[in-house]
Every structure is written in structure tokens, then in C-alpha cells.
Design a protein that fits this description.
Elements: E1 13-16, H1 24-27, E2 33-38, H2 42-45, H3 48-56, E3 60-65, H4 73-86, E4 90-95, H5 97-109, H6 117-121, E5 133-137, E6 149-154, E7 159-164, E8 172-175, H7 185-203, H8 211-233, H9 238-251, H10 265-277, H11 281-295, H12 301-310, H13 319-336, H14 351-362, H15 376-385
Parallel strand pairs: 1-8, 2-3, 2-4, 4-5
Antiparallel strand pairs: 6-7
Helix pairs in contact: 4-5, 7-8, 7-9, 7-11, 8-9, 10-11, 10-14, 11-13, 11-15, 12-13, 14-15
This protein binds 5,6-dihydroxy-NADP and zinc ion.
Length: 387
Amino acid sequence: MSVQNFDFCNPTRIIFGKETIQRLNDLIPQDAKVLIIIGGGSVRKNGTLSEVETALGKRHFDVFEGIEANPTFETSMQAVEKIRHDNFNFVLGVGGGSVMDATKFIAGAVKYSGDTWEIITSKGKKVNQVIPFGFVPTLPATGSEMNTNAVISRKTTFDKIGIANPLFSPLFSVIDPTKTYSLPERQVANGVADAFVHVMEQYLTYSVHAAVQDRFAEGLLLTLIEEGPKTLKNPQDYESRANFIWAATMALNGLIGAGVPQDWATHMIGHELTILYGIDHGRTLSILLPSLLNEMRKEKREKLIQYGRRVWGLQGSDEEKIIDEAIAKTRTFFESIGIKTHLKEYDVDSSAVEKVVEQLKRHNLTALGENGDITLEVSRRIVEASL
Ligand code: NZQ
Ligand code: ZN
């Protein structure tokens, strides 16, 4: 089997480094009317917002505050109303993945003439216009700063749904690593785990002899394994923080996924755990991935061995042992950065199994994985093994 055909284009401009926020002045048109979108206030407290406001200078702007973690359709629609009412023509998301994802949805919904919930039910396909938008990311994790995806929730109906559209590529992202120093340890750990699992879901499938994609993926995993613990220990060490941030961006910007099979089952099942139990995104992935790898060890055999040898340096000819150790090391890595990897440690009991399966069924997620063979029955076993 050889590498699949692909069409790779990433138009997002990245401005990276210390004291780069002032560059917004060159990136946003002088006559733009800008709505800044923020979350619960972290960017006010750590000074990022005031730097952004200074960079905008004499431009007309206002701030929409209140995008929640796991951003909701309802709150995002309030921003849409404000933009329509006050005629803003540029949106600037300043915050983590939730703010960036909400901004993408908002930029598409403003121009959408039908019922905006259709954007979600069509998984983003119905968006055919956006108003221009860019980002000042403050949390390395999702890769939203350089990709075409967003995840939007509606709590009343227990929906957390991924949407994607080439129009969701931000025009630019201005990444100043020092603006992430204020992150609590829990969010940094979540970010390391999220980025790690993004790489795994594009890498740990079956081999198509994509040497470049594989080596890039392994390089990102090794970087996260080395730099993640360092940046947790010394949050203000610029080198390790900058390396971690760039790894997280590269983990999900299309590069390592070009032409290779992908398995997003951990994310899909994880989204159901977040909407049902409020468990942080990165944590749901750390709970599920080891169980999923074990459940699919036959199908993923060749790649599990490659991962064990190249990423964890495992040796010897006993291949079953290498697979067991590679999975165990993955779990130990998440635990070493302070993430518990069993549902019971989040006060979730076995009643979760049926609830998650019901949700997957309702969302038509009945044939997940690179081969479409993670059926509801297999997902059930994965959740059971994660208790
Ligand atoms: O809301 P504020 O006050 O800003 O606080 C946030 C929030 O409480 C805080 N935070 C962010 N930057 C900070 C900071 N606190 C101190 N200092 C800073 N510099 O961190 C908390 C979590 O923020 P959030 O944006 O929710 O986290 P994350 O970046 O992990 O985003 C998670 C969301 O992204 C989705 C997830 O499903 C989830 O909804 N994903 C998006 C993807 C994409 N667009 O490609 C892919 C991912 O797989 C993921 O599914
Ligand atoms: Zn993720």
C-alpha cells in the first residue's frame, strides 16, 4: 500500500515569538471595524487583551466576552447578533481553542442566511462565506490557530460536534509564547495530551509507507515527550514553552495527515464524555487512547511496533511485548504529566458505557476508525476498558 493522493494547502500566516502582538497593526486593515472575541477573562488578567487593544490603535473595536470552554452555539450566536447589529467586518479571537473555534463559527454564521444550526448539522459544509478573521492564541493544544476545524456544543441537547470547512483557515495567528505563561498547570497538561493524541490519530493506523509523514509525526511525539514535562516544571522557560507551542500547532495543521489514513475515534468518543460529564477535552483523550490502542492492537499491529521502537526506544524481538509496553508507556506518560487515565477517577461509573454508546448512535458515529470497523460494540468495549 502506498501513500494516498492528497491536496494540501495551508494559507494561514503565522507570526511567532516574543513581542509580536504589535504586528496586528500590519495584519488588520486600518479601516476594519473589529470585534474581539474572548473567553472568561484570562486574557484580561494576563495583559494580552490590553496589548491587542494598543496594537489596534485608532481602529474602531469592541470586545465580546464570555465564550466558555467547549464553546456553545448559544453564546456564539450572541456574538453573531452583535456583529450583524453593529456592522463589524473583522473578528479577532484572543484566547484558547474554545475562543478560536467559536470565532470560526461566528465568522461563518454572520454571513449565513438560513438557520445557523444547519452549519453544525452539515458539519460545516454549508458555510460558503466568512467575514475575515485572525487569532491571538493563548493556549497551545488544539491546532485551531492553523487549521480548518472547530468544535461547537449545545448543552441543552447534549451535542458536541466537529465542523470543518476550508474557509475556516484563519488569515493569521500571532503566537507570543509569553502570553501562555499564565496558564494553570492543568491546562498545560491538557494541551500536551491533546497535541500528542492529534499526532497519534494521524499516525497510529496502518502503514502506507509515508516516510515523511511518519518521521514528522515521530518527531512531534518525541518533542512533546521531551518538552512537555519541561514546560510544566518551568512554565516561564521560553525555550521549552516555544517548542511545545510549535509542536502543538504542527500536530494538527494538515501536514502530517496528508495522504495517510486517519483514526479520529478517540476524539469522537471523547467529545461524548465531555458533553455528558464535563471532563476536559485533553483528559477524555488520555482516558480513551490506551484502551483504544489495546482494543485495536491487531489492526494497528505494524504501526504499534514502529511506534514502540522509534518513539519509546523499545528493543527485542517479542512483538507482543513491544506492543504491551508501548501502550503502557503511553498511559504512564499521561499520568506523569498529572492526568488521571481512568473514568472512575473522575467519579464516572459503569453507567457511562450505555450513555456514551447511545450518544454515538444518535450522532451516527457507528463506524469509526481508519477502517470504519470501530462499531458501537467496539466503542462499548473501549469505554468499558477505560473505567
Ligand atoms: O476562558 P478563559 O478565561 O480565557 O480561560 C481559559 C479556559 O478556562 C483558560 N486559558 C486560555 N488561555 C489562558 C488561560 N488561562 C490562563 N492563561 C492563558 N493564557 O484555559 C481554559 C481552557 O481554554 P479552552 O480554550 O477551552 O481550551 P483548549 O485550547 O484546550 O480548547 C478546547 C476546545 O477545543 C476543541 C475541544 O473540543 C474544546 O472544545 N478542539 C478543537 C480542535 C480544532 N479546532 O481543531 C481540535 C481539538 O481536538 C479539540 O477538539
Ligand atoms: Zn483534540
